Amino acid sequence: MDNGTCQVYEDEIQSLEEEIKLLAEKYEDSQQESTFFSEEEILMSKKSFQGEFQGESKGHESPSDLKAQLESLETDLSFLMKFTGIRFTHHSKKTVEKTKNRTVRKHRLSGNCHSLSFQLEFQLLEIQNKEDVSAVITDLSIIMESGEDLDVSKFVSSTEERGDLLTFFRSLSSYAEWYEHRRCTFQHFKVR
């Protein structure tokens, strides 16, 4: 054999060895991931998934049932948006950390409430005990276009410290509604 042919074979052998090494690493990674869960947990998850899937297929026998349920959900969402004035324009979620009983996800939300826009960024820490899951909001950051209103800035700061999204959205809805009324009133006097 000449040197050119030998070199081609050696290159091919080296390429195959590298591919085998990469596949072995992938296999080890998948083995480590599967060892996070015991066989009992995997079987319980599988049974739970099958039960949910069978329950879903029994509960929604036809596409028309799914369409009716989707229309109902859209109607409910539309009512909530009209009632609260809150409209979400963007949401993203990224898993930051995941272990056997702990998950940390980073959420980003943006939207508007009447004429005020807002952006939220927070981490949601979910801890799973034997039977229930508890969730805690951490690292809450709120950006609002509140102008020079010092009271809104204080409210946003205290909400960020407490991580209380429910109070934030309730207060935002009420504040934005009255903000819109004030804006329209001042606009009325400017016109005259």
TrEMBL record:
- This protein's source sits in the domain of life called Eukaryota
Concerning InterPro entries, the annotation shows: CENP-P
- Pfam families attached here? CENP-P (PF13096)
According to the record, the segments passing through the membrane are none
Please tell me whether the keyword Coiled coil is annotated for this protein: yes
Annotated coiled-coil segments of the chain: 6-33
Cellular component per GO? chromosome, centromeric region; nucleus
Keyword check for Coiled coil: yes
Record-level GO BP terms? CENP-A containing chromatin assembly
Provide this UniProt record's keywords sorted from A to Z: Coiled coil
> What protein does this entry describe?
CENPP protein
Q: What is the lineage of its organism?
A: Eukaryota, Metazoa, Chordata, Craniata, Vertebrata
